[in-house]
From TrEMBL:
Belongs to the TonB-dependent receptor family. Keywords: Cell outer membrane, Membrane, Receptor, Signal, TonB box, Transmembrane, Transmembrane beta strand, Transport. This is TonB-dependent receptor. It is found in: Cell outer membrane. Residues 131-236 form the TonB-dependent receptor plug domain. It holds the Pfam family CarbopepD_reg_2. It is a multi-pass membrane protein. Coiled coil: none annotated. Residues 412-974 form the TonB-dependent receptor-like beta-barrel domain. Residues 1-34 form the signal peptide.
Length: 1011
């Protein structure tokens, strides 16, 4: 058959065309699919209401693992597989927000603050939890509430911040103005300080610059604290430092300059009033007046023309000549370079005291680094160096204030030729401050924290940590012998007789090592989290002191320049170890029913091997009632309602290093004309000593209303048993009594916290308020009863005031004759005491507990408001009920040769029978000076702790200056106090003789800038 050419068969033609069309369709489909799945770049900016940018906001594609965070300017960029889907914006303390993409390439979001804090992440033991899932009593304090106050010690910044946390500051001395922290009362007669952990490692919070703090968590009940076992009986404070956020390099500066002045000083009488009042006291005591009218008249005429022979010394004015200027500067640099994030900061604090030779200086250098090697392995490496120097007069701050407030104005302070007057028997506080030497302490602390985090799967995390810490403290105490003179120029006294130098050094090395494993899984409506871990902590330290006196050249105060005749050396060393195993189980069902169990098994070298380990468990549960179906109809009103309860046991191992052992006292003795070393057994040991144990029950409720009001309330009962006491033993044993686990103390109370915020247009305002009460009672002391001014007795609180009960004044001799016999020679105007046992005389049997020094009803409230670029913050703090007691030179006129105050002019006389003070007497130290309720005053107070006014520069200005933000502020600390305490003395130091460096008012101006 002849083949045709140039013409195709119809069937083949159709197949070829179909194949071509199919291929084109496939190509077009592939191109469309490729176009559809091409990455889409979404950019934008996240801010809060008021236009402030938010760095570190988490942005995720809903239903996926794709995500990013905003940089320091609040900007973000995220790559999505397509232009569909929804972005979820979330940030701690703000309400989450969703935004559908729908083809957008630019998205700007404004987040609103969540006053309820339901989404807030709270730092707890060895981890974090959402606040909404907490079943224990935990209070978290943000950095914003700490850095606004010009404090030098972080502990003082916690005062009044959290309900149930009492912070007492008894002095404003530079470097010594740290607060004493008590969490839910005092549970022991021994060390009642809480455990302080900085980024998970035990440390001193007062070494940390407040600008470094991200947050502070206070673990108040056993459920939250039991994970720390033997050290948690007095509560736990977790300090978390700041870390780098965002991907851009940023620099911040915060600094202020301030001026200090004393809040309280006793108003002493001048020379003329001292003579007149002293004459009255002499006359009332049956003595001949010391000064005649002619002498007083002459004194008045010559005080100004001849001050050397007729002095009118204002001791406070002459002694308090320090500038009181303080300054604080902080520079932080943070950034990211791919897998490395770092935050480096340098802080400098300088505080000059109101006394020339008092001051405090601190340098802080810290670097927090985060390294992500890959998706599974990451590391944290933190390094910190702190150098602190504290100075005060060589003879001590207490001695200076004692003499300054007791020496009469008639004693010479400084003569016109510059020589020091004799003061009181050569004790001249002006000389002490200006030429009496110096006590200088320098402490160098080096801290490192290395953490490796390995996450083989999304639900399992392993972590190991090594955190060594080294402290070196050096004391240089030089007390210079200073001569004082008479008006004629002759040496009157030399105090002390010889110049003395004492040097001391203490070195300590702390080791902290930990490993943990955390599993976190969600099954349908079930959420479980399991933590297992082990840790080991060690300490080794040694101390050394050297002493010499009789320095021929006081201007060269080194040991070799002193005499060898009385030189002394001492040395000490100690060590301890703590080995622990711990675990925690969290379970939640449907975000409604919550359960947590903690356990720790501690072994401490402080106890004998057979009693070395202790087990400390806790259990807690919570019910989120607001998530039940029957509550949904009021969800817009009741945003959250949670009931919770807990029970647990805690321990206290801070009872000394090795109290179970019988230790030898080392010394030296002269025998046969030679000095020989000796050892003596003085103290009896007790091998049965074990932990002090605290059992605590807690019930609480958390409520969030209207999206702007939160209420937290707790009730607790805390019983500490096995408290170490020294019980009586037979004298025939010949040794001092050993410690025994014998005492028991109860703390029971309630706490209430409120947080409200709202706005009216551009005016934003809020209030934080809290109040707490604690009832402290000693339950068992095995019958031990002391008779000191401050006692601890069964049925009463720790450190109760024990004294006679005053009952006004005797108004006539007939009243004296008809009353039980009292001490001394009585006269109308003397204090009358209650005869408790109705016998013939006032004796020790008539003493009773008359007051308690433990504060009740501690409270605070913080008012804040902002209008556009202006903001105002006022913080008030106080105590509703407490008792204080001053005695001796502080309030008792002419005590042991002291002077009088202006308030003592209101003393009993025939024409002033309702006086503030009894009749003036001198030298009898008798009836009126007996411990009694007369000298006890209420220590309740309300204090305006901090007031700050700030202005944030507008965006138009900071944009031209190339800044991210800038704020200037002025603040006042300890501005006003309302109380009924003794005039001239601080109500926060309510017991003693008043010879303390006073708390100070601080006025500051500051600048906060971010580049």
């Amino acid at each position: 058959m002849k083949q045709q050419t140039g013409i195709q068969r119809p069937g083949k033609f159709l197949l070829t065309r179909c194949a071509a069309l199919l291929l084109c369709a496939l190509l077009l489909s592939a191109r469309a699919a490729a176009f559809q799945h091409a990455p889409v770049i979404i950019k934008g900016h996240v801010s809060e209401k008021g236009a402030a940018s938010l760095p570190g906001v988490t942005i995720t594609l809903k239903g996926s693992s794709i995500g990013t965070t905003t940089d320091e300017n609040g900007n973000f960029s995220i790559s999505l597989p397509n232009d569909a889907g929804t972005l979820l914006f979330s940030y701690v303390g703000y309400l989450p927000k969703e935004m559908p993409v729908k083809g957008k390439t630019l998205i700007n979001i404004v987040l609103e603050q969540d006053a309820t804090g339901l989404g807030e992440v709270v730092v707890v033991g060895y981890g974090t939890q959402k606040k909404v899932n907490l079943t224990g009593a935990v209070e978290q304090i943000s950095s914003a509430r700490l850095t606004d106050r010009p404090v030098t010690q972080l502990s003082t910044a916690l005062q009044g911040i959290a309900p149930g946390v009492t912070v007492t500051t008894t002095t404003g001395a530079p470097g010594a103005d740290a607060g004493t922290i008590r969490i839910r009362g005092i549970g022991t007669l021994n060390n009642a300080n809480p455990l302080i952990l900085i980024d998970g490692v035990e440390g001193n919070m007062n070494e940390i610059d407040p600008n470094l703090i991200e947050s502070v968590s206070v673990l108040k009940d056993a459920a939250s604290s039991a994970i720390y076992g033997s050290r948690a009986a007095n509560g736990v404070v977790l300090v978390t430092t700041k870390r780098a956020k965002g991907d851009q390099l940023s620099i911040s500066y915060n600094g202020y300059v301030g001026w200090q002045s004393p809040t309280n000083l006793p108003d002493k009488v001048d020379a003329l009033d001292h003579m007149r009042l002293l004459n009255m006291a002499y006359k009332n005591t049956g003595l001949t007046p010391l000064y005649s009218d002619a002498q007083i008249e002459e004194y008045q005429q010559k005080m100004i023309t001849d001050p050397d022979n007729f002095p009118n010394t204002d001791w406070q004015k002459e002694v308090l000549t320090g500038s009181g200027v303080m300054q604080n500067h902080y520079v932080g640099i943070s950034g990211s370079s791919g897998k490395l994030r770092f935050m480096t900061s340098l802080g400098y604090l300088n505080q000059n005291g109101i006394i020339k030779t008092s001051g405090f200086e601190r340098y802080t250098l810290r670097n927090n680094a985060d390294i992500r090697f890959n998706d599974k392995l990451s590391m944290k490496l933190d390094l910190q160096l702190i150098n602190r120097t504290t100075t005060e007069p060589g003879r001590g701050m207490t001695n200076v204030f004692l003499q300054m407030n007791r020496i009469p104005a008639v004693q010479p302070g400084r003569f016109l030729n510059g020589q020091y007057g004799e003061g009181w028997n050569g004790n001249n506080p002006i000389a002490m401050v200006e030429d009496g030497g110096e006590l200088r302490n320098n402490t160098l602390s080096l801290f490192g924290n290395l953490q490796l985090n390995y996450q083989p799967t999304k639900w399992l995390t392993a972590e190991v940590m090594a955190a060594p810490r080294f402290n070196n403290s050096y004391d240089n105490n030089f007390v210079k012998a200073v001569p004082t003179y008479t008006a004629a120029g002759n040496i009157a006294y030399t105090q002390p007789a010889k110049s003395e130098l004492t040097n001391g050094t203490d070195r300590g090395f702390y080791g902290n090592y930990r490993a943990s494993l955390t599993a976190h899984k969600t099954f349908s409506r079930h959420e479980t989290k399991l933590l297992l871990g082990a840790s080991r902590e060690t300490f080794s330290g040694n101390g050394f002191t050297a002493f010499r006196d009789n320095f021929l050249f006081p201007q060269y105060p080194v040991q070799d320049a002193g005499s060898r005749e009385n030189m002394q050396t001492t040395g000490t060393a100690s060590e301890w170890a703590l080995q622990s195993f711990f675990g925690r189980l969290n379970y939640g069902y449907n975000q409604r029913y919550l359960f947590e169990a903690n356990a720790r098994y501690d072994g401490s070298s402080r106890f004998l091997r057979s009693r070395r380990y202790g087990f400390f468990p806790s259990f807690s549960a919570g019910w989120r009632v607001s998530e039940e179906n029957f509550m949904q109809f009021i969800k817009p009103v009741v945003n959250d309602l949670k009931l919770r309860g807990s029970w647990g046991k805690l321990g206290n191992q801070n009872i000394g290093t090795y109290p179970f052992a019988s230790n030898l006292a080392m010394g030296a003795y002269s025998m046969g004309g030679e000095v020989v070393s000796i050892a003596a057994l003085n103290d009896m040991g007790n091998e049965e000593i074990t932990w002090e144990t605290t059992t605590m029950t807690n019930f609480g409720v958390d409520v969030a209303l209207f999206r702007n009001l939160t209420v937290t309330a707790d009730w607790y009962r805390k019983v500490t048993s096995d408290i170490l006491l020294k019980l009586n033993i037979p004298l025939s044993i010949g040794l001092n009594a050993p410690y025994q686990n014998a005492g028991k103390v109860l703390n029971q109370g309630w706490e209430l916290g409120l947080n409200y915020s709202s706005n009216i247009g551009d005016l934003n305002y809020g209030i934080n308020a809290n109040i707490a009460d604690v009832h402290n009672e000693v339950l068992d002391l095995r019958g031990i009863n002391s008779t000191d001014l401050l006692i601890s007795r069964e049925g009463y609180s720790i450190n109760s005031i024990y004294a006679l009960q005053a009952d006004g004044y005797f108004q006539s001799q007939a009243e004296i004759d008809g009353h039980a016999k009292q001490i001394g020679i009585l006269a109308p105007g003397d204090i009358r005491y209650v005869n408790q046992n109705k016998d013939a005389a006032i004796t020790n049997e008539d003493y009773k507990v008359i007051g308690s020094t433990i504060p009740r009803y501690t409270y605070s409230f913080n008012l804040n408001a902002s209008f556009r670029n202006f903001s105002l913050n006022a913080f008030f703090q106080g105590v509703g009920k407490a008792d204080g007691y001053l005695y001796s030179y502080s309030v008792q006129p002419f005590y042991s040769g002291g002077t009088a105050h202006e308030q003592h002019k209101d003393s009993w006389r025939e024409d002033n029978r309702e006086a503030k003070f009894p009749r003036l007497t001198y030298g009898d130290n008798g009836n009126n000076y007996q411990p009694s309720s007369f000298w006890m005053k209420s220590a309740a107070y309300l204090r305006l702790k901090n007031l700050q006014i700030a202005y944030a520069l507008p965006q138009s200005v900071i944009g031209r200056l190339k800044l991210k933000s800038a704020r200037v502020y002025a603040a006042g600390q300890n501005m006003f106090t309302w109380d009924k305490f003794w005039d001239g003395y601080d109500v926060e130091a309510p017991v003693g003789t008043g010879n303390r460096y006073p708390q100070v008012k601080v006025f500051t101006i500051g600048l906060d800038v971010k580049f």
